[in-house]
Design a protein that fits this description.
With 259 residues, the chain is of the alpha+beta class. It folds into two domains: 12-87, OB fold (Dihydrolipoamide Acetyltransferase, E2P) (Beta Barrel), CATH 2.40.50; 90-254, Recombination protein O, C-terminal domain (de novo design (two linked rop proteins), Up-down Bundle), CATH 1.20.1440. Helix content is 37%, strand content 22%. It has seven helices and nine strands, in the order E-E-E-E-E-H-H-H-H-E-E-E-E-H-H-H. The chain has helices at residues 89-92, 95-112, 119-134, 139-153, 195-206, 221-238, 243-254, and strands at 12-24, 28-35, 39-45, 64-70, 77-86, 159-163, 172-174, 179-181, 191-192. Strands 1-2-3-5-4 form a five-stranded mixed β-barrel. Helix 4 runs parallel beside helix 6 (221-238).
């Protein structure tokens, strides 16, 4: 999907994926592009919502490819052109998947902020979006895996070895402390975890990123139990709640899938 426009010597080429979009003015769109080299950067695409807009589909959520951006005096660049590799349309056309991926983008933005390149997190995000689009993975699995691996990549690797106090059985998890506890050493706010959920978390803590989805569980409820823990962990470490998570759950419920 190519976009031919006049370019100049100041334009710079970035490979990345659009992880946030907002309407701007009457016909423009403000974009947040997660790039390989510069992290998350902002760019405006002028006239993209107008009747005569060309290649509008290239400048929307989850468009992945090479973006030609023009620096300006401020922090926001101008999106000049785009050569799209993948638009992940199976996600964009599914309201529940799109809501979940918007949540992934939200927590990624919260963790990284702007202008902080992190190829590992970009790879985690791209691989998870790819799985949502083209693999038959339960969304509950993608959710707990991405939440957990994002925390690990962002410097919040939890201690999954056993009770942090005595080394005993892992029966509770502390979203604030990022560690397990046994029944004798549990504290207020610790969440009960089953042996199956502990196993999932230990696998994710130890596996290479490329193997993060290479496992299964006998009951999908285990993914949801693990996800209840990992979402609390993300929220505690970010010190905020995410409206995008509530929106995802409400959309899923409207589709008959109660979270």
């Amino acid at each position: 999907m190519k976009d031919l426009m006049v370019i100049n010597m100041d334009d710079q080429l970035y490979r990345g994926i659009i992880i946030r979009q907002n309407n701007y003015g009457d016909a423009h769109r403000m974009l947040s592009v997660f790039t390989e080299t510069d992290g998350i950067v902002k760019a405006v695409r002028y006239g993209v919502r107008g009747k005569k807009a060309s290649n509008a589909a290239a400048f929307q959520m989850l468009s992945y490819g090479d973006f030609r951006l023009r620096p300006s005096r401020g922090e926001v660049m101008t999106a000049v052109s785009a050569d799209i590799i993948d638009g992940f349309f199976p996600v964009c056309e599914d309201i529940v998947k799109l809501a979940l991926v918007n949540y992934f983008a939200d927590i990624t933005y919260s963790l990284l902020g702007e202008g902080n390149p992190d190829r590992r997190i970009l790879s985690l995000f791209l691989n998870t979006v790819y799985a949502a689009a083209y693999r038959a993975e339960p969304l509950s699995k993608l959710k707990c895996v991405y939440e957990f691996k994002l925390m690990c990549a962002g410097g919040y690797m939890p201690d999954t070895s056993g009770c942090a106090e005595c080394g005993g059985a892992a029966q509770y998890f502390s979203p604030d402390g990022g560690c397990f506890s046994c029944s004798a050493h549990r504290r207020g706010g610790d969440m009960p975890v089953s042996a199956a959920a502990v196993s999932v978390m230990r696998y994710l803590a130890g596996c290479p990123d490329r193997r993060m989805l290479a496992f299964g569980v006998p009951d999908v409820k285990i993914y949801r139990e693990t996800g209840a823990v990992t979402e609390r962990y993300v929220s505690a470490q970010a010190d905020r709640e995410f409206a995008s998570l509530s929106y995802f759950k409400s959309v899923a419920e409207m589709q008959g899938d109660v979270w």
